[in-house]
Write a structure and sequence with these properties.
Number of domains: 2
CATH topology of the largest domain: Rossmann fold
CATH superfamily of the largest domain: P-loop containing nucleotide triphosphate hydrolases
Strand content: 25-35%
Bound molecules: adenosine-5'-diphosphate, magnesium ion
Shape: globular
Number of helices: 9
Largest sheet: 6 strands, mixed
Radius of gyration: 17 Å
Strand order of the largest sheet: 6-7-8-3-9-10
Number of strands: 10
């Protein structure tokens, strides 16, 4: 049996004629954090949406703990351990923080963390009784992270969580993600390279839906094609 928690092979997603994700592969062992980097529109969120079952892949495969889970629906994948946060968080606004976490937990097939424990981790213990609509944007992001965490993910996808956070909040999120990654795999989409450098073990750089580099962030920053794509804007060639 495979040592990897998740193995993504040749993943593809097309929208009409647009190849938003064009043959992307990676695998992650327990405890590993992968950073996904690339210009806007390079396919980062579509990779998450496709692996997490929002859209059926147009090609490729996804294995979770050695089992083929390609094409399963999002709710099923979430239940069995592929969870994610959204670039724009989507809590149930009329429900309290507690209710949002409780609903997510009730959908999980295995539970390793309680609602109170998760609220503590993401810094929302004091806000349990407040409606999600009353939270500021950082706390909405933390609630979204909590909703994913309370389902005890094997693989957690985090889409631009750090964007817009204050420096002190960033430090907390850096620590939190490393802690979360101790007993699962984590994929982090982020533009802030200083943050990624501290959070990710390695990065996969995308341009126009394709991998252009995989390896350490410091090596990526030395790579000619990566430099061209980041300095020269996205290229679809
Ligand atoms: P990123 O997250 O890297 O900024 P996205 O994955 O959101 O990029 O988008 C990749 C490309 O796919 C973009 O050209 C975007 O317009 C397109 N795209 C994403 N989702 C859809 C969709 N549901 N329908 C059509 N095109 C989409
Ligand atoms: Mg995106």
């Amino acid at each position: 049996m495979s040592e990897n928690v998740i193995e993504v092979h040749n993943l593809a997603q097309s929208f009409g004629g647009l190849r938003a994700v064009d043959g992307v592969s990676f695998s992650l062992a327990n405890g590993e954090v992968l950073g996904l980097v690339g210009p806007n529109g390079s396919g980062k969120t579509t990779i998450i949406n496709t692996i997490c079952g929002l859209y059926e892949p147009t090609g490729g495969s996804v294995m979770l703990d050695g089992k083929d889970v390609t094409g399963l629906r999002a709710d099923k994948l979430a239940r069995i351990g592929i969870n994610r946060t959204f670039q724009i968080p989507r809590p149930f606004l009329d429900l309290t923080v507690f209710e949002n976490l409780e609903i997510a937990r009730n959908h999980a097939s295995r539970v390793t963390l309680g609602v109170a424990e998760v609220a503590e981790l993401v810094g929302l213990s004091e806000s349990m009784g407040k409606p999600a609509s009353s939270l500021n944007s950082t706390h909405k992001k933390m609630l979204d992270l909590g909703r994913a965490l309370v389902m005890s993910p094997r693989v957690l996808f985090v889409d631009e969580l750090a964007a817009g956070l204050m420096p002190a909040e960033l430090e907390g999120v850096t620590q939190l993600l490393r802690e979360i990654a101790r007993d699962r795999s984590v994929v982090v989409v982020e533009h802030l390279l200083g943050f990624l450098d501290r959070v990710a073990d390695r990065v996969l750089v995308l341009n126009a839906g394709k991998e252009i580099f995989a390896g350490s962030l410091s090596a990526a920053l030395q790579d000619d094609l990566v430099k061209k794509v980041f300095l020269g804007g996205s290229s679809s060639s």
